[in-house]
Amino acid sequence: MLMNENEIKLLNKGELHVHLNGLVSTDVVRELLEENKSDLPSGFDLERDLNILQPTDSLASYLKPWQVLRLVPRSRACLGLIVESAFLNLKSQNVRFVEIRNSVIYLALLNNISVDRALSWLVSEIELACEKHKIIAGLILTVSRGDCAPEHLRSLLSAYENLGRPSTVVGLDLAGNENIESPIETGSLFLHAKDKYELKVTIHAGETGRVENITSAVYEFGADRIGHGTAASKSVEVMDLLKHRDICVEVCPISNKLTSAVNESQPHPVVDFIANEVPFVICSDNPSIHLSDLTKDYIEFYRETRSSQHLRDMYSHQKKYSFIKGLHGN
Ligand SMILES: [Zn+2]
After folding, report:
1. 329 lies in some domain
2. What total of structural domains would you count in the chain?
3. Residue ranges of the Adenosine deaminase domain (predicted)?
4. d(CA 8, ligand 1 centre) in Å
5. Any idea what DSSP says for residue 170?
6. If you measure from the C-alpha of residue 1 to the centroid of ligand 1, how many angstroms do you get, rounded to a whole number?
7. Ligand 1 centroid vs 175 CA: distance in angstroms?
8. Measured in angstroms, how far is the CA atom of residue 252 from the centroid of ligand 1?
9. Distance 204 CA to ligand 1 centre (A)
10. Which domain holds residue 169?
11. Does a structural domain hold residue 56?
């Protein structure tokens, strides 16, 4: 049966791959940045450069807004405004539960506070917003690929431990430039954290064509889910691996086009995931940067696949693969 945009918007949704800084509305970011305009990188245009609306030539160009997204918030009150804006956006999409990603370390540096304090600010603001908007939320701690990955992961885990392992924190994520190697111990630190704290793991992998990053995410990092994973469709073995281990791919259709992970003229690899029974969920990644929303990602998926059944089943898939415990009945 055909579905229209309004029906899609009204579907109950879960969101399993969204970055806090990409979910806060651009207007809020712009207002917060206006207060400290002198810190902006030279040539950065607040009207033009906070959004990505056309496919970029590389992931690095896609990440341009992050040059300034890491300059806010400069106080707990401003963090509160950011989280509030993010939750309003989720509410407008009928999102019932969400896993929000954030790397927390920049929050500590920017506000000259400890990582423990930064994590406690973020957890508290998310918990307040959950209560207010009646949306269930978990926090995923993101670590960037590269030399500092082990150090950052250690300090995030130590903050998590010092705060008494808050139940709002549900998982760990590795993100950033996939061509950059991280120190060899990074994978074993993820595995250790999984084992010790029962945190779940998702890894941004195979977004820029490197299928080997998906296998390493599974074997070396213990990935429970894969972010993007578009390169998986290049390998029947990797699609089999994901299927047989029941590892869910977080498919972000609009983001994939804007980063050029998927060429505009090519079918989206989710078509191969469906054909090969690779589990997947639809997510929005950075909707406000795209001046978009989760409904538009559903519509883009629908345009590619014409499958309304997948859209109707999506909420139960999102619950099944969520890192948040006890979602059944929601
Ligand atoms: Zn992402």
Report:
1. no
2. 1
3. 13-303
4. 23
5. E
6. 31
7. 7
8. 8
9. 7
10. 5-321
11. yes
